[in-house]
UniProtKB/TrEMBL annotation:
GO terms for molecular function: metal ion binding; NAD(P)HX epimerase activity; nucleotide binding. K(+) binds at N59, D121, S157. This is NAD(P)H-hydrate epimerase. It comes from Paucilactobacillus nenjiangensis. InterPro entries: YjeF_N_dom (IPR004443), YjeF_N_dom_sf (IPR036652), YJEFN_prot_NAXE-like (IPR032976).
Length: 209
């Protein structure tokens, strides 16, 4: 059975895996994204209009890698960027360059969500540390207003993964693919209402301490 961790433990674990074991962050990102792709394909979701909503951290990097992997599977994919590009993580920048090569359309217009058949929520993962506001809040609200199936990458954006409490507002996902470990807050109320079904992608080639 998958282990359940707090955010602090998760961050410590990621640091250990990257710095001590030496598995590069971008490799972990690829493995996480391959796992998400496989889960999405297995579910036979309608991939005629996949919209990946991506922040500028590594959760967004996961989202961009999923966008590319689904595009390779001949899905129609659009990326909506949310946030400040000046804060882009280096792994996310790598994924952006690859997505450009694959000519995946990119926008910051939330109306691209209107006809989505599947939404991949990759705005925030375990890095969220304060209440959501402004364009982040608008994006989360826009996702929740659609009827499209929503798959959250690692954590429904806006959710405190330790307590399961929304930091102002959080995505209500149909499926959450928790990366490497389950999160403590996913079993709480109201956490359960936000995560939907939880699948743990734990075949990450990482070390269990
Ligand atoms: N190498 C790694 O560490 C791995 C990370 N992974 C992914 O990376 C995620 C964590 O990535 P990050 O640590 O980059 O963090 P996130 O991508 O969750 O968040 C990005 C940044 O947003 C900022 N932020 C926090 N709350 C905010 C708010 N309310 N409004 C505006 N900005 C806010 C913070 O500076 C935070 O670092 C995981 O959830 C997972 O999806 C996976 O790719 C596996 C490997
Ligand atoms: K997310």
């Amino acid at each position: 059975m998958a282990k359940t961790l707090t955010t602090k433990e998760m961050k410590k674990f990621d640091k250990f895996t990257i710095e001590k074991i030496g598995i590069p962050s971008i490799v972990l990102m690829e493995r996480a994204s391959l796992a998400i792709r496989d889960i999405v394909l297995k579910r036979h979701y309608d991939l005629s209009n996949v919209v990946v909503v991506a922040g500028y951290g590594n959760n967004g990097g996961d989202g961009l890698a999923v966008a590319r992997l689904l595009k390779i599977e001949r899905a129609n994919v659009t990326i909506i960027n949310v946030g400040n590009s000046k804060h882009e993580s280096s792994e996310r920048a790598t994924q952006r360059k690859i997505c450009n090569y694959y000519k995946i359309p990119t926008t910051d217009d939330l109306s691209a969500l209107n006809d989505a058949t599947l939404i991949v929520d990759a705005i925030f993962g375990v890095g969220i540390d304060r209440p959501v506001a402004g364009e982040y809040l608008e994006a989360i609200q826009a996702i929740n207003q659609t009827t499209a199936t929503t798959v959250a990458v690692d954590v429904p954006s806006g959710l405190n993964s330790d307590t399961g409490t929304p930091l102002n507002e959080a995505v209500r996902a149909d499926l959450t693919v928790a990366i490497a470990f389950n999160k403590l807050g996913f079993g709480t109320n109201p956490g359960k209402e936000h995560v939907g079904e939880v699948v743990v992608a734990d075949d990450m080639g990482v070390y269990y301490f």
